[in-house]
Amino acid sequence: MGGLEKKKYQRGSATNYITRNKARKKLQLSLPDFRRLCILKGIYPHEPKHKKKVNKGSTAARTFYLLKDIKFLLHEPIVNKFREYKIFVRKLRKAYGKSEWGTAERLKDNKPTYKLDHIVKERYPTFVDALRDLDDALSMCFLFSTFPRTGKCHVQTIQLCRRLAVEFLNYVIASRSLRKVFLSIKGIYYQAEVLGQPITWITPYAFAHDHPTDVDYRVMATFTEFYTTLLGFVNFRLYHSLNLHYPPKIDGQAEVELKPAEGKEYAMDSESYLEKLSALSASLARVVAPTQEDDVEMDEFPVEGETAEQMDARRKEQEALEKHKKLFEGLRFFLNREVPREPLAFIIRCFGGQVSWDKSLCIGATYDVSDPSITHQIVDRPQVEQQVVGRYYLQPQWVFDSVNAKLCLPVADYFPGVLLPPHLSPFVTEQEGDYIPPEKLKLLAMQRGEDPGEESEEEEEEEEEEDDNDKDEEEEEEDESEKEEEIKLKKMEEQKTQSNKVQCMAVGLRLEDKQRLEQEQQSEEKRLAIMMMKKREKYLYKKIMFGKKRKIREANKLAAKRKAHDTAMKEEKKKTKKARRA
Amino acid sequence: GVGGTGHPHTSSRGVGNWGWGLCCNRADGCVAVLMVARWQSTSCSHPRPSHHPASSSVLQDIRNTVGNIPMEWYQDFPHIGYDLEGKRIYKPIRNKDELDKFLEKMENPDYWRTVQDKMTGADIKLTDEQVDLVHRLQKGQFGDVHFNPYEPAIDFFTHEVMIHPVTNRPADKRSFIPSLIEKEKVSKLVHAIKMGWIKPRKPKEDTPTYYDLWAHEDPNSILGRHKMHVPAPKMKLPGHEESYNPPPEYLLSEEEKLAWEQQEPAEWRLNFVPQQYRCLRAVPAYPRFIHERFERCLDLYLCPRQRKMRVNVDPEDLIPKLPKPRDLQPFPTTQALVYRGHSSLVRCLSVSPSGQWLASGSDDGTVRFWEVCTARCMKTLPVGGVVKSVAWNPNPTVCLVAVCALKQVTWHGKGDYFATVVADNSNMQVLIHQTSKRWSQNPFRKSKGLVQCVLFHPIRPYFFVATQRYVRVYNLLKQELTKKLMANCKWVSSMAIHPAGDNVICGSYDSKLAWFDLDLSTRPYQLLRHHRKALRSVAFHKHYPLFASGSDDGTVIVCHGMVYNDLLQNPLLVPVKVLKGHALTLDLGVLDVIFHPTQPWVFSSGADGTVRLYT
């Protein structure tokens, strides 16, 4: 008796959450404004642990925000700006309605604007936090920069996105921080490592967009508004960390080179600057001229609790990284006009290569097709007419594959018109038990410096195929040898992964029987033990085992598919050979 | 038709005002009719009557006075208008047919310049000048030959300031005194500024757009302000199957593609179909690119976030570490003997205290006696009804078997008393009988529910009664309820008691086996869900720490159930063997299990009409 009556849902988790509508009413904002505020401030709904409790006993589907978040929004200065803007629009409409042009002009001059600097700082208190969240910002900016200059959003936004994206690309080139690239059917993925943070972004292929009707561009524009602010600040900081000018300046020497020789202007001065920058072929000017001392070797301090082995591994990794950064150093590329210029120029420049293209294609071409010092020409046509001696004609996939493999791959597979080897994703790291495509196995072997000898074998095969008088037996042998090769590769891989499977080579029948019995007994023991598991644990165990089994099933399916494909290919090869012989 | 009417101009030769209509038939591409209506006829075509009054009688002035009206109005009349005297002007008699017209066209050299005057209906031959005029108009030139359209223009107003004003009017007074209207306007503006309604133009901010925002960063600051912050997960990185040129095994076959298309978008594992392109040039734009970015945006601001702990355990660690069954021997492992003979399901079993004989009761209305070691049926006893329960007197000196067709019969450990259960819902369900005195008694005054089975405590004067959900323990001496065990199951089927008397197991139709420790609590110490189907019977071994359960799934599960004398140590339950053998008939498997009194053997009777011995 006595005391206050405890009411339900007036304490605990029910009071920590607030529904969206209530939050909106508390903030006195319209839904679009609330949405904008949430996007800009990075406020998102939470899924409460006990939804029914939070929902005051109801099970209706509602989105909940944390009350703390909403209270925090109450003091946001931008909310007032939203209101001001609403009033401004109303006044402007009134002035137009009364045909008071002078008032309208005056109102327009005083258009309320807001800045997002403090929000960026607040959402990302440290620079590393901002870098961690840069993926979406970059992808969005790259997408917006490809939009047409009319229609979907403000031209200024598009131009700003383009500028920021180009600046970021230039930074990646200057810092040589690109690590992985991937040609997917959706677009081109890039991964750079900036201050130890992997940053992945995707750019669409350069085609006109078919603008969907079921996409709310206002939402995207709001996101982009925030992302451009974020990216601008990040770019500023990144450029300064490399002692580069921001906004970027093209190196004086390069600028002279970039001047069109004919003396006529390429574009308006304001535009040509961005164009030159986006050509990605010129290096950027530094605030302080680089001196030799910059390249002083870093002293190494052993980290506490690190064994010599780990240190060694670390050093080796560092060396590999340095080597990777200089992958295309000393190579001179020429891009034909049918290959996508910007991605390739970006990638090649990121790894120290020199690159040029046809003068009529884009500004910033530094040398001509006829330059004898060109080592690689990137071609995406079935065949090349006048080939110049002394350079490789390669398909663009070679550049991407080489970057991912961290070494210049043999060029033979990538000649124009040749059936390309599969392009693998560099983002996949196979765990034990996963399916690994044979191409990846080959690549791993190559990276370790082991020559699997596959190529010579294949070449031989080619030669032999051309020979008309080879016998079927030989063929069989060849197949065998190929298979052995495959097995060898697999074995090497297994040894590497140190799979501790006991492989008994010669097992007698009795031994096997005994083993089988023992195994059976073990499995039965396990079964009985599983029976004794608690309900919750049993559920978890079954779930884990289900996942594992599914994974194995999928891997097996892929392997079987591959095998079927390979045999089919072989059959076809044989058939064509026979047909040729006949 | 295009008509330019009333183009007045004066000419030096005194040609009067002309009004003409120019009708042209565009389809023919040539002028069809030229109608010239004259207010004043030219001197050259028709000599004016005033000049030649003498010839006025000969050449009548037949000017029509109807004016500029559509001439169709006179279509139905014989006349076409009125002349100056007010007399009718009759239409000329026209009886030219097509042939005449054609002949005239062929013969008359001036046919092309003959037009019909609509006002009078007469044919007029155009003069050369008129033809010229028509030609000029057709070309879009001025009608007058001598008109010069490009005469030098004279500027009346120049930009140069002249000494003389254009007008000689003196300036108004209002141009010297301040305007009241303007004053009013200005005062309104001043008032508005004073009141703050009009704000002065903001000065342009000249702070740079971007600067070093993180110049003074606080390394200890928390991301997201509070501990509930959940950072957005990054997007999944693409796998091999997303490549523009994936390895062939990642491409979908036809069936897989079909299956993918039939799936709901929510259940797709991949949100695209892997594709292979020969070369980079052939790769098209991805149509859902903007969609995907948009969906990501939606996820970022609309999707409720929750921190989910991922259990990262080795599944092997979850399996409890139990003593190995090998170390817990002896227990029955293999099927040794099958006792065949019954023609219907065998409901109940009982072993003689010596362990030599086995009695089994069946639905075929017989009780059979078997020799355990040889599986020979020594005696078949037709009872004449379904045998629900048999029980061998536990007293080794007396050889007595209780056979009942009611529900259950069970002996007290001494062998003097036995209890029977009847399947009705009265207070007479349970009766206790004494063989030596040959009298029965009804222990309960009131029914507590449908009694499933009853048991005597092996040592103490306790009596266990299992109803559907509870097991009640009665003290027979004090005649009171001592305990009520909650079985945590829907329907108890069977019950057995440990020979030491402190532990009870209950089997239930919802495939659970509850182990009660009577000293511990009235709730089960452990609930074992080993069987997949309903449990039919449970049994304890007299000497070995074993118990068995038979179920409708056709298996008998033998468990090691060690009970320690130390009260602090809980019983150890380990399943040691799953015995299979009985075939499922009518969805029934094992109906009864019982242990051999001395050996670690177990008998089971099944719905397939057999009794099996596992050793």
General description of the model:
Chain A: Component of the PeBoW complex, which is required for maturation of 28S and 5.8S ribosomal RNAs and formation of the 60S ribosome. Chain A: Residues 323-416 form the BRCT domain. The complex is a heterodimer of chains A (582) and B (615). Helix content of chain A is 52%, strand content 7%. Chain A is α/β, with parallel strands linked by helices and 582 residues long. In chain A, strands 7-6-8-9 form a four-stranded parallel beta sheet, with helices on one face. In chain A, strand 3 and strand 4 (188-194) form a beta hairpin. Mean pLDDT of chain B is 81; it is low at 1-58. Chain B starts with 17 loop residues before the first strand and ends with a strand. Among the domains of chain B are: 12-138, no CATH class; 325-614, Methylamine Dehydrogenase, Chain H, CATH 2.130.10. Chains A and B meet through helix 2, helix 7, helix 8, helix 9 and helix 11 of A and helix 5 and strand 29 of B.
